[in-house]
Amino acid sequence: MRNTGAAGRCVATWTWEENKIFEIGLVEFPHGTADRWGKIAASLGNKSAAETEHHNALLLEDLAAIEAGLVELPPYPDMEVGLGLLPPEERPRPNSEKKQSAVQRKTGKPWTEEEHRLFLLGLERFGKGDWKSISRYVVQTRNPTQVASHAQKHFERQEREEQNKKRRSIFDSSISEGSSDPKLAGEGSSDPKPAYN
Predict the structure, then answer these.
(1) pLDDT per residue over 71-93, tens digit each?
(2) Separation of alpha carbons 193 and 41, rounded Å
(3) pTM across the whole model
């Protein structure tokens, strides 16, 4: 049985299993291996070295034709509905999709004091990171993603408050803030020498 390749020529049919063995052989016996095509043919069992080498040449030609855009790709089931059937120039660009999705995005609903109180109880009960349980059993008006987002903001707010409570260090002061010591400030001294020796 024979098939027509991408370039329109007649080629011997290879089964899926034979193609798989052939691909494995290409990896096991890389370019430059002595008697590469003979070894791949031996692993196939029913093809000659010339047939495997010819099969490789045809596959490389087909690959070049596909990459050049000369062969239309079949519509795969996992492709987005309809997009695979449109010519490339009519398909939406990734940037325009982002703009469209930003317009359709819902605005957030602020958390109520009650929801926040329940969040804190859930945090105490289930611990940090178990947003699914907090959402399912405690703050039932919010989904796990919303609970995780609220937690992130909550912990960032706590961290900022902690940083504001820390005692200031002497190294936090700058020269422009001045000093009450005339020697350090350079005031009241007619001596041109520096204050420190």
Answers:
(1) 776 665 555 545 455 556 665 66
(2) 92
(3) 0.35
